[in-house]
Amino acid sequence: MDSAAAMTGSDLATIFDRMSAIGAHPGAGITRLAASAEDGAARRLFADWMSRGGARIAQDAIGNQFACFDWAGEGAPWVFAGSHLDSQPRGGRFDGAFGVLAAGCAALDLDAEIRAGGFRPSCNLAVVNWTNEEGARYQPSLTGSGVFSGALPLDDALALKDGAGIALRAALDAIGVAGETGSVPPRPEAYVELHVEQGRVLTEAERRIGVVEGTWAARKITAAWTGRAAHTGPTPMADRRDALLAAARGITAFEALVAAHHPHLHRSAARLVIEPNSPNVVVERATVWFELRGRDVVELDIAGRAVIAAFEKATRETGTRLEIAADGLRAPARMDDRLSALAGDTARACGFDPLIMRSVAGHDAVALQNAGIPSALIFIPSVDGIAHHPDELTHPEDMKAGLKVLTALLRRLAEGGFHAER
Ligand SMILES: [Zn+2]
């Protein structure tokens, strides 16, 4: 999967094409699950490209990669910029990878400017690839940024298991990502992430740059129905306890209830596991992952309680048992006001009219911000809002706009534009 020719230089289109080839399947998008062989190839391309550009590569114990530019020396504050190189199964090329590679190009350009005597940086910069942002293979998502910022204990993260029972520690080991290497930079004074919007808000507002002021809240409920395994043929109908039937009723009740009473909440039931999953056995256990997203925690609380009551009704009707295996509320985040204002200013100075907006999805920047690291999240448009799908697309002129704003913002931060105001 690694191609022979080495990649050098800060041409975003070239490195983006190189990265997009890793884990690509014709017509089926990109599959680069965290800690897979494809993730390993993406990590090597990133590290090789950055080190050829003069960066020092470090890696922490959860596998986060840091391409470090020690511009201002030891003891100077750090600024981070990045995103993630892992993807969903059959995901898009832009989600995450664009943010890492744009940050890499910005860093290389600024490094060249500094070497030419263009300006004197007062801090160091690291371009970061966070491990398992997507949460496709390992849950929870935002694993690397969660460990770095202290929200998730390292040992818990390394012990996470995928669907096949493979621990994250073993999967990282298998691709040669084993333990800390190099000198990992300390908590930064600022983190900036550039990401595709994954929605249609920017396009509908006819804007090219969005500055995210905060995120929606999310409530994630995992419901498991238990019935009784039985022969699908002779077992009398009155004796059956069908967990899949209960889950199906739970899903339709969830859809009807939320659509009727909370129509502006985003809702999904997107994963179903049934056991034993044989055509000749009445389903004994069905587990469904439900999700509600909205701006308001109180509404999510009310909707979540109504949903669980509907699940209980489906349980009674089918003679099954219900277990709420997980029920988590993710509070809405507010990005750093001062850093976001600087991002907006910078966008305007670059000739754009930034839209101040909210993100429905979570991102590494949100994990860091929630852990007290001042963070800003900048969006560029996604065509038709398509995300987590092979058709995900962002136009080249929007990519260039994002890179321009990111580079200018990192330049201001490197010059001390953030800490000087403290
Ligand atoms: Zn992403």
From TrEMBL:
Xref: Pfam families: Peptidase_M20
Transmembrane regions listed in the UniProt entry: none
Cofactor note: Binds 2 Zn(2+) ions per subunit.
Coiled coil (UniProt feature): none
Cofactor: Zn(2+)
SUPFAM superfamilies for this protein: Bacterial exopeptidase dimerisation domain (SSF55031), Zn-dependent exopeptidases (SSF53187)
Organism, as annotated: Shinella granuli
Keyword Protein biosynthesis on entry: no
Protein name: N-carbamoyl-L-amino-acid hydrolase
Example of a GO MF term: hydrolase activity, acting on carbon-nitrogen (but not peptide) bonds, in linear amidines
Family according to the record: Belongs to the peptidase M20 family.
The keyword RNA-binding appears for this protein: no
